[in-house]
Write a structure and sequence with these properties.
It is a single chain. This protein is of the alpha/beta class. The strands form 3 sheets. Strands 1-2-6-5-8-4-11 form a 7-stranded mixed sheet. A hairpin with a 5-residue loop joins strand 5 and strand 6. The protein is globular and about 50 Å long. The termini are far apart.
Length: 243
């Protein structure tokens, strides 16, 4: 049985000079604690990721990690159709499908984080051995596969389930706000702001919300009811960051 990893992250004030676009964590900002957000995070080993799926038969890594500064945060729902009562089993199934089973497999999980109905966070895409989920030791984001053409520097957070016509659970929504606030603070993102996202690999640019849903980037119903909830979510994130 997996033992959840209690993770407590401390949020810092953005201040008047906080950047809306790409920025790294500021040591000065990190010195000022404005609020605290606690959530339970399950590492890949805790939810049972089969790391062999990331490697081909000859031992080469199917999708070597690449890292970029965070520019924006994007919310999804998995819409996976699973009825398995065990959320970790559903995460494992999504991982296997993303890694090796789908028509064009990625070689790993496409999302950076996932959240279940109980409000637990799951580490997604493998990001290295430094122990910081989704990031390298320098605080850069590992590139996922969740918004075609706009993945580098774009954090992908997926809520388990199909939310096309139903809202997320209260626990899942509360954790989403905490995780978004944690990431926005860490990367000096204004939750109410907009960015001109620039893909550092392809050079493609696009105006987008600093915190948005998949539907802000593509013609899709993802993230379901969370799309119309985005304005309220941004306000909740901003309030939590302000303490």
């Amino acid at each position: 049985m997996m033992t959840p990893l209690p993770r407590r992250t401390f949020l810092t004030a953005l201040g008047a000079a906080a950047s809306v676009a790409v920025a790294g964590p500021s040591p000065a900002a990190a010195a000022t604690t404005a609020a605290a957000a606690a959530y339970t995070l399950l590492s890949r080993s805790q939810w049972g990721a089969d790391e062999s799926l990331r490697f081909a038969a000859d031992g080469t890594e199917r999708w070597p990690p690449a890292y970029s500064p965070v520019q924006t945060l994007t919310v999804h729902h998995t819409d996976d159709g699973s009825t398995d009562p065990d959320p970790a089993a559903r995460v494992r199934a999504i991982y296997r499908n993303n890694a090796v089973n789908q028509k064009d497999p990625y070689g790993d999980m496409g999302y950076n984080y996932l959240i279940d109905e109980n409000g637990r966070v799951y580490e997604g895409r493998w990001s290295g051995t430094d122990g910081t989920p989704a990031h390298d030791a320098a605080g850069r984001l590992v590139t996922g596969a969740h918004v075609q053409g706009y993945n580098s520097g774009n954090v992908g957070i997926a809520l388990l389930g199909t939310l096309t016509n139903t809202p997320p659970s209260a626990a899942a929504r509360a954790t989403l706000v905490r995780l978004l606030a944690d990431l926005a603070t860490r990367h000096l993102i204004d939750p109410r702001g907009k960015v001109v996202y620039r893909n550092p690999v392809s050079g493609v640019s696009r105006a987008a919300p600093a915190i948005g849903g998949h539907r802000h980037w593509a013609s899709t119903d993802c993230p379901g009811t969370l799309y119309t909830a985005m304005p309220a979510l941004r306000e909740e994130v901003a309030a939590l960051m302000a303490g």
